[in-house]
Amino acid sequence: MREMVDVPVTADLPIRVRALSVADLVEIRFGKAFPVSLPADRAALCTLGSMPGIRTDELTADERSERA
Q1: DSSP conformation letters of the chain
Q2: pLDDT higher than 70, residue 3
Q3: Which pairs with CB-CB distance under 8 Å and at least 24 residues apart come from 17-20?
């Protein structure tokens, strides 16, 4: 069984993106000293691109419910 790795993504975390056109992938690297690589194929990029907006809405809703 694989272990899960948590990578806290903050505003000051270096993020680099590199196209791997031979494999039709984009490699997203987080960090410098011990980088974590997330390879994503072309089809997954649409899903990845739409997820942060959904999660931001959920965070905003959670903040509102905590204030009430």
Answers
A1: -PPP------TTS-EEEEEETTTTEEEEEE-SSS-EEEEEEHHHHHHHHHHHHHHHHHHHHHHHHHH-
A2: yes
A3: none
Contact (CB, 8 A) for 41 and 32: no
What pLDDT score does 53 carry? 65
pLDDT in tens, 8-22: 888 999 999 999 888
- Answer whether 41's CB lies under 8 Å from 25's CB: yes
The model carries a pTM of: 0.63
